[in-house]
Structure formats: C-alpha cells, structure tokens
Write a structure and sequence with these properties.
Elements lengths: L2 H9 L6 H13 L4 H8 L6 H15 L8 H7 L6 H19 L5 H5 L2 H16 L4 H15 L3 H14 L5 H16 L1
Helix pairs in contact: 2-4, 3-4, 4-6, 5-8, 6-9, 8-9, 9-10, 9-11, 10-11
Length: 189
C-alpha cells in the first residue's frame, strides 16, 4: 500500500463522524506499513487532509500506542507546527496517551524509548497550547499531560498552577472544571 492510496482514503473520508474515522483507522491497523505515511500527512500542515490524518492517527494510537515509538522523534519535533484546532485536538490527546504510558507503573515500549529531550518538547508544546488561543478540549487534554509529566519535574507543576490560577476566572465552565481538578491534583503532590 502506498501513500497515494492512503491520501485517497483520507480524501474520501467524509465528515468527522466516528464511523468514517474508524473505517480509515481500521485500514491502517490492518496495514501497519501505512502508519509512516499517515504521520507524514499529519505534518503536511498546509494539506487539508492533514486534519483528517490527525483524526485517524488518534484512533490508531488509541488501539496501538506502542506503534508511535519509532516515530517519537519526528512526532515531538513537528507537533508544534500544527495550527488547525481540528488537528491540534487529536495531537493533544495523543500527547496525553504518551504521558500516561510514560508515567505508568506498567512497562511499555513508549516508556522505554521516550527520551528526556522528547519529554521536554512535549512539555514545551503543551505550555504553548495552554497560553495560545485554543479551544478548551485542547487545553483540558494538555492539563492532564502536563500534570502527568510534571510528576518528574517540579517546575512543570508550579508553572501549570500559575497558568491555571491566572486564567481560570476568565475561561469557560469546562476549563474551570478541569482546571480545578488539575489544581487539586497538583496541591496533593
């Protein structure tokens, strides 16, 4: 299977319905050689299909997170280039998956191969998303990611706490709710 084949599938994906996303993600799950092309398309940020590729990548990694391991360097280097909210949202969710695997007591390939430099890039991108004009879902996923990765870096929790305390009063109800939960978890540390 080729990149052009995958581009064709993404082009025919249709609206962001779960059934449509699952159809293409199942195709990638059945043909793992397509993952490399999927990640390439995600980072072709001026290509309208990059958003659809990000949707599909989220679904693929929900099932097979360890598949991201060989691509962590590329992923952490390029994720900050995403600017469409519809692509950033699944990327933020994927960062959450990575953070959860990395900080878990269970063993995983991601935990074994994720480098400190890559963790630092995830943290940096997360803080960029927290202070940028993104929708609440992106910020909510990012709060969780930063909280988890902050367990190994004291400064992350203090910076996240500062941002949350500064912004919580002027943000949406959903941001306030997730922010209060995150602040509570930080304060328990």
């Amino acid at each position: 299977m080729t990149k052009n084949f995958l581009l064709q599938q993404l082009n025919n994906l249709g609206p962001a319905l779960r059934v449509n996303r699952l159809q293409v993600s199942n195709l990638v799950l059945e043909n793992p050689e397509l993952l490399k092309f999927l990640i390439e398309i995600v980072f072709e940020v001026d290509n309208k299909l990059s958003v659809k590729a990000a949707w599909v990548l989220e679904y693929v990694l929900t099932e097979k997170l360890d598949w991201i391991a060989p691509y962590l360097e590329e992923f952490t280097l390029n994720i900050g280039k995403l600017y469409f909210g519809s692509a950033v949202r699944p990327a933020a969710k994927i960062y959450g998956f990575i953070a959860k695997a990395y900080t878990s007591k269970n063993n995983s390939i991601v935990k074994e191969v994720l480098t400190k430099k890559q963790v630092d890039r995830i943290i940096e991108t997360g803080f960029d998303w927290m202070i940028s004009q993104h929708k609440v879902a992106i910020k909510a996923y990012t709060m969780t990611t930063l909280f988890l990765l902050g367990k190994n870096s004291d400064w992350v929790h203090s910076e996240l706490k500062l941002i949350l305390e500064q912004n919580i009063a002027k943000e949406s109800a959903a941001y306030k709710a997730r922010g209060k939960i995150t602040l509570g978890l930080i304060n328990k540390q």
